[in-house]
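Researcher: Predict the fold of F-box/LRR-repeat protein 2.
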Amino acid sequence: MHGFRPQGGFLRILVSRCKRLEALNLSHCTNVGNDGVQEITRGLTLLRRLNLDGIQWITDEALEALLEGRAVQNGTLCCIWLDGFELSATGFSNFLSRLLDIHISKIASHLGLPSVSSRRLPDNPKFLELLRADGLEILSISFAEYIDDSCLPHIACLASLVELALRKGRLFTSQALCDTFSPARQSQLRYLRHLDLTDCPAVNDAVVKAICEGCGSLLVALFLNWCWSVTDVGLVRILETCHRLQHLSLVGNHVIIGESFRNLPTSQPYLRILNLAQCNQVLDSVLSSVAVQMQDLYIFDYFGERVGGSLDDVCQFDLARSMNKVPICEH
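Model: Structure tokens for F-box/LRR-repeat protein 2 follow.
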């Protein structure tokens, strides 16, 4: 239903007639608001995936409705996409905290453990195994501009996450981001496969180091677009650590030169997309050399054109559309 503009009681009818619905994509359905979310949470008790991205009118009130719904209370809802434009840091932090408490309380009760807080998880192998096996798998915020460091400790406890997007997180600090991903700070994000920190100015080489140490070995997609504080030092660490990468996007980085890309054929055998649009310092000669050696790799240069491709070859926007995603270079 992406982009559909439901009128009147459409959602009420949908909910009443599709009670066993498990996935609902309302992305960019701009007529949906908090009332619509309440309809969904009251009626769709088996919902697993809910996409509300691109709906700017979703506020903290909608998050409260999600928490009260059966899909959250019984642990069914595992994938959430939100726009974030009208979410407050306090509201989102409270949402994550209560979401964790619900999940943790169920596990503790199952194991016969005393009351457990997300602030201090027990060093119990069975507890941590259940925390990893059942819980939120995808959390995506496309406009996190008003979300701050207070939310990050809760995110760091989401052990079941495999996909995390915190785009435009301009209030985050570098230290808080380091703590979020660092195993030394007891981060539980070691199973992430997809990570998008596009337009988070605090992402620097230290944050990249924490990411690589925490979940780098399993990452298949990493988006650090418009993260201007990431230098060649961070790039080298990514290429030396994240050997399963299939998609690396560094759009808008005007610092990296990219000499380390010469090692891509050996260090990144699975890489299929390397997006360097608007990266004005990267050496074209290096990219051309890599393109010859890795002909299945889509390398996009400063202009967003494929390196080594023909005039009618796919550009980054065409590839993004074919993947049914928003343009990779969106800013």
